[in-house]
Every structure is written in C-alpha cells, then in structure tokens.
Amino acid sequence: MGIEKTGSADEQIVMIRSNRKDQKMMRRVGVTFVLLGMSVSPVFGATAGMLSFQGLIKDSVGDPVTGPVDLTFALYDDEFGGNLVDMNGDGIADPLPGADIKVVSGVVVTGGILSTEFGPVSPKASDAGPIPGADSLWLEVTVNGVPLSRLKVSTAPAVAERLNVPGTSFQAVVVDKDTGKVGIGAAPDNASTATLQVKKDSGDAKVLVETSDPAGKAEIEFKPSLGVAAKITKDPVTGKLIVDAGEDLEFKTDPVGEVSFKKGAEEVMKIDAGGNIGVGTSTPTAKFHVKTTTPMSDIVVENASATGKAEILLRVGLPSAESQFSNETKITMDPVSGKTTLDAGDDLEMKTPPAGRHSFTKGATEAACIDANGNIGVGTSTPTAKFHVKSVGPAAEIKVETSDPSGKSEIILIPGSGTPAKMTKDPATG
Q1: Which phi and psi angles does 387 have, rounded to 5°?
Q2: Pairing mode, if any, of strands 324-333 and 340-343?
Q3: Which of 230, 270, 233 is closest to 248 using CA atoms?
Q4: pLDDT at 378
Q5: pLDDT 10s digits, 166-197
Q6: Whether the model pTM is above 0.90
Q7: Sign (positive/negative) of CA torsion 196, 139, 63, 199?
C-alpha cells in the first residue's frame, strides 16, 4: 500500500493505492487529525519521558479510518517552516528519523481513533516543562510519509479542545472544557444556554440527521433529567414527521411574533401578533376567522357518539360559579329529536343591514321572510303589507287560537286615529 500527497498544502489530500490480484482499488482520502490529548508520562522531571498522543483521523467524506498506519512526530518553532526542536536534549536538532524526528510504526487506528506515545523527550532543569519554549511550538505529524498541517502545542491546560480544518484557521469543532459546551464552526458562546452550537459565517447553517438504512427512522431526542423524553422523528414508511412531546407541547414566539402553518407554499392557518387565529386567511380580523375560496365556508362541530349532541356555546360576562356565566347562548343539534335548538339564554336579536332581509326556509322553500322594508311575508317572498299571508291551497288562513276553554280569540284592528275595532270569537255564546 502506498500513500502520496495530492492537491494544495491546505487540502491535505492523500491518495491510497491498494493492489490486489482480482481488483485495483484507488481511494481518494482526506486525512484530518484532531489533537484529542497530549501529555508527558510519567511526570515532568529529570528523566526522559514519553509524550502521549491521541488523535482522530477521517477520510475526505468524513468517515473514520480503520487500519495500521506509520507515524512520525517532530516539533518546530513555527507553524510553517521554522526550526526543528531538539527533543533529545543533546543540543543538536537532528532531522534523522529516530533522532529528533520520532518514529512510531504500525499504529492501529480503530474507528478513526489512534492512541500512541512518542519520545523519549528529555526535560531541561531550566524549563517548566520537558520542551524548551513549548508554549510557542508546533507539532508536525506524518501519516505513512505524508505530512499533515501542524498542530499548536501548549504545556498549559487548554481551555478548549479544538479541531481545525487542516491547513486553515477555521475551527471545525471546539469543546469548552469548563462548561462542556460544543461549538461547530466557532468557539461556543458561553452567554448562550445551548450545549451544542452551530455557527456559519455566511450562507445557511444546517444540521443533518441521516440514516443509510432505507427503513430506518431519523430521530432527535430531548431527554431531561426528570420527566418524559420528547422526540422529533421522520418515518420513512409513512413519510410523516412526528413530534412526540411526551407531555405538554408549547409553541412560543416573542410578543410581536406570528405562528404560521403551511402545506407546501400555501399558508393554511396563522396566529397573528394579536393572538387572532386565521384559517384560510393571513389577516384574521377576529379571534377565530375562517375564509375559503370555495362556494361555502364550513365550520364542523361533530360528536362521534350516536346519541351525543353537537353544540356551540356563546358566553359573555364573568362566571358567577364554577361553570355558570352571566349569559350563555347555545346552538344545539339533538340527534334524538332531530331538532336544532337556539337557546338565547336571554334576549334574542336578529339583525341585518338596513337594506338586508331575513329569510326562513324549509329545505329549498322559503317559508317566511322579513323584507328590507320590514314587511313580513308568510308563503310569499314579496310581502306588500306589514303582514302578508299567501297560500297555494284553496284558502289563505290566519289562525288565532287560545288553549283556555273559556278564553276568547280576538283580532284587534287599530287605525292611526279613532277607535280600534275588534273581531272576537266568544266560546260562551259561540
């Protein structure tokens, strides 16, 4: 197996060639190192110690690399070029492998993680650590002979662990050791309460949760220390995105924010900044505003029980008891009697604009109306008097009846002036 470097210095791309009897495979791999840890064992002192090194290595598509690799380690006093550091402590910076360039062969990488030691490194009594001027040194690592971008070395405890894109200063991942917060794209903002923070200088910042299993679900889980976990799940079988709150679910915006529900590009429901709910409209003018472009706007109140009533309640005033309001109007559909009842609770007023009319229909037939002039028509849609009765039968009748056996039935005619006239049916005289 051979490895050769290709591309620019910043790309850190290597080519791995593997020759086999039955195939020739070429794979383009971008090797990325993360300095997970670096320390001296056993302690800083007068005897030679080993530097413990842990790293993460991935290919160009971000998959962890697995397999043996040969490594070399060298320290320099500059990120680019500079002078080789004397790790042996003999006063001579020897660039030969095995001298001040430390060689570690056959390091097994599993799941992208490698852990090894290199050295020995000789401390000097005049220095606080094993390497003179270590706070301004850079570590160069080669993988199978391919040098990678140098890593900053510090003998002081790091505030954060950082993963930089090789050959650049771009911080891919930063972990704050004190707070445990993780920043992707930049150091985490400790003023924020978020544990995981994603930042991008330009364009969209996106987080992808993906499974390569065709039947597998992609899921984000929110698990508090107490209470029930919540999940957001994309189900490939149903195609649905499911929000399982576990307990209560709250949608919240700032005081002047709006909540919009869309199907494709179409807004189907909106809660505006005033708290008005619009269905089919983006500009609701009431607490609940329904609008449609079809011939009819429907609000359905349905009871699935065969004997259950469907009811709309209109309430005003403050409740004087647990479930008693000062005034309550009910519109009720009773499946047993088949009747729809309007219970005003108090006075009932039916009002139209000055030029409007009231119509009372049975099926498609208008049974009665009140026209724009206030004339009442029974059996006619065009009343010509204040009370106009019309029948298609042999006679047009007006019936005046009392249920009192001794009561009289009476019609009183009152002119604009003069004495009223009466037509009376007396049950005593017949």
Answers
A1: -140, 110
A2: antiparallel
A3: 230
A4: 92
A5: 545 566 777 877 788 888 887 788 888 888 88
A6: no
A7: positive
pLDDT of 31 above 80: no
User: Is the per-residue pLDDT at 320 higher than 60?
Assistant: no
Mean pLDDT value across residues 212-241: 89
Q: Does 393 have pLDDT greater than 70?
A: yes
DSSP 8-state code for residue 110: B
Under 8 Å between Cβ of 199 and 183: yes
Distance CA 123, CA 129 (A): 6
| DSSP 3-state of 124 | coil
**How far is Cα 223 from Cα 229, in angstroms, rounded to an integer?**
4
pLDDT band at residue 328 under the 50/70/90 scheme: confident
- What average pLDDT does range 297-320 have in this prediction? 80
- Give pLDDT, residue 171: 67
* Residue 1: predicted pLDDT: 29
C-alpha distances in Å from residue 130, one per residue of 51, 59, 65, 86, 96 = 10, 33, 32, 11, 21
Residue 3 parent element (H or E): strand 2-6
Rg value, the chain, Cα: 43
Query: What SS3 class is residue 218?
Result: strand
Q: For residue 383, report the phi and psi dihedrals to the nearest 5 degrees.
A: -65, 140
- In this structure, are residues 272 and 260 in contact, taking their beta carbons and an 8 Å threshold? no
Phi/psi of residue 349, each to 5°? -120, 130
**Given this model, what pLDDT does residue 170 score?**
63
CA dist 370 and 363 (Å) reads 18
Cβ pair 38, 55 in contact under 8 A? no
Q: Are strands 196-198 and 182-184 parallel, antiparallel or unpaired?
A: parallel
**103: which 2 tokens?**
């060689």
The set of residues, in sequence order, having a beta carbon less than 8 Å from that of 262 and lying 6+ positions away, is 268
Contact 389, 381 (CB under 8 A): no
Cβ proximity of 137 and 150 under 8 Å: no
